[in-house]
Write a structure and sequence with these properties.
By secondary structure, this protein is an alpha+beta fold. It is 27% helix and 32% strand. The chain has 7 helices and 16 strands. It has a 6-stranded mixed beta sheet with strand order 11-12-13-16-14-15, covered by helices on one side. A 5-stranded mixed beta sheet has the order 1-2-5-3-4. Helix 7 links the parallel strand 14 and strand 15.
């Protein structure tokens, strides 16, 4: 099998969590061979576990989707995301897999400890432009979650925008339209998110979204991260997402860091044109957000690094690995929402700091 499987596991109490990044070690193979190897690795990694979510990163989604969909029909149905963000190791496919020790799925969603976990992949909606599609995607998420709500239960979103330099502004307004309608403001909260270049296999879809929501949360379990000594509030420069979110359970804490780049506390891009210095500031900002949640880079469970220019891959990978050794990370081509940002990273951390007021995960 021609894959490299980097896995994080966290064992505490009754539930063990696993995040795996599966990449191809022989990029010269054809797509079908690479796909077979990745799916075989996924089956072996998830054997005896509950699979919560799969995200496939493809190099040419329009031409690869038919083979992927055919292969997935032979596997148990799980929430799945497919996005064209070419792996920077020159392979055609990579995979992020999240699973846990077995959970009760009789209600349609993995559940344990009074919580239900709702992963949603590749949501799209019709519309003439990115603004209308973005608003429609949130409405689709709203319908899929009932009786839960986007405002109170959605922990994290991932927004992929086709031709981000052209269509991101419309997506920003569409998200604002939905948030204004549902009462989400800078005085309440927004949702942790990544907004990045990514293509849906169908060219008509300018926007697609993945989301993670949790049912059964009590007041205070979901909190937000700011690191205002390092980063500005996003709404200071016209966008509406949280820098990070944190869910505290009785036995652990999940920390979701939004897409983070080389930005300062005034919202300005730092080190324009220098990808090495931008990477350093990016990692510094992530560390500041993690520290606010009582964690550090050593607690990362997985990460995704997005690069505008594939030729920066070796430089950025060396710098990230020096700070995050042995962490499952995938590197993909995905221009950030501002052209002057050359690199962005998102990540997820898990710590043992919990709260006895809440049930275990």
């Amino acid at each position: 099998m021609n894959t490299q499987n980097r896995t994080f596991s966290f064992q505490e109490g009754a539930v063990t969590e696993y995040h795996a990044i599966v990449t191809v070690t022989r990029p010269s193979l054809g797509f079908q061979e690479q796909l077979q190897d990745v799916l075989q690795a996924a089956q072996e990694l998830s054997a005896g576990k509950t699979v919560h979510f799969l995200r496939f990163f493809l190099s040419d989604a329009t031409n690869q989707i038919s083979l992927l969909e055919k292969a997935l029909q032979e596997l148990p149905a799980v929430p799945t995301s497919v996005v064209q963000q070419a792996p920077l190791d020159r392979s055609k496919i990579a995979l992020w897999l999240y699973c846990t020790s077995p959970m009760d799925c009789s209600g349609g969603f993995p559940s344990h400890g009074g919580y239900t976990h709702h992963w949603t992949g590749s949501l799209t909606a019709p519309g003439a432009g990115s603004r209308e599609q973005m608003y429609g995607v949130f409405k689709e998420l709203e319908k899929s979650l009932k009786p839960l709500s986007v405002a109170n239960n959605t922990v994290r979103t991932w927004i992929f925008v086709r031709d981000v330099d052209c269509n991101y502004a419309g997506a920003v307004v569409g998200r604002k339209d939905y948030f204004n309608e549902t009462g989400l403001t800078a005085n309440t909260h927004y949702i942790a998110s990544t907004g990045i270049e990514g293509r849906h296999p169908d060219w008509k879809n300018l926007v697609e979204m993945d989301a993670y929501s949790v049912g059964g949360l009590q007041e205070g379990q979901l909190s937000y991260l700011y690191a205002l000594d390092h980063l500005s509030p996003t709404w200071d420069y016209g966008v509406t997402f949280e820098r990070g979110s944190c869910v505290t359970y009785g036995d652990r804490r999940h920390i979701f860091i939004s897409g983070t780049a080389s930005i300062d506390a005034r919202g300005e891009v730092l080190h324009q044109g220098n990808v090495a210095l931008q990477t350093g500031r990016m990692l510094e900002n992530i560390s500041a957000l993690l520290e606010e949640a009582g964690a550090g880079l050593k607690d990362l469970a997985m990460g995704i690094v997005y690069l505008r220019d594939f030729s920066d891959y070796e430089c950025v990978k060396a710098l990230v690995q020096a700070s995050c050794p042995n962490i499952p990370i995938v590197y993909v081509q995905g221009p950030v929402c501002r052209p002057s940002w050359l690199v962005e990273m998102e990540c997820l951390a898990v710590t043992r700091e919990g709260n006895a007021l809440y049930p275990n995960f």
